[in-house]
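Example pasted here:
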Amino acid sequence: MGILQDLTEALAKDVIEAQDELGDDRFFEKVSKVLLDMSPTTQEAYMTAVRVILAERKARKFLEATLEAKRRGTAAPQAPRDAVGH
């Protein structure tokens, strides 16, 4: 891994932990603006890491809720419909 990816992944993880503690689910955008002011390349790598972490978190919650529903014999949550993705 290169220094750009290593640094931006570490920062993204720290920022997401901080935003949980702060109760500000858009705090990552404020940090993004700070990065953009100095380095658009760093800002883009950071935003990619943030998106990956937040997507994994959402998918993991869905997985856990689905398994919990199965174990309890209740209806599983529905996956989003008509989701726009890549």
Notes: The chain is about 75% helix and 0% strand. Residues 70 and 76 are 7 Å apart (CA to CA). The mean pLDDT is 94.
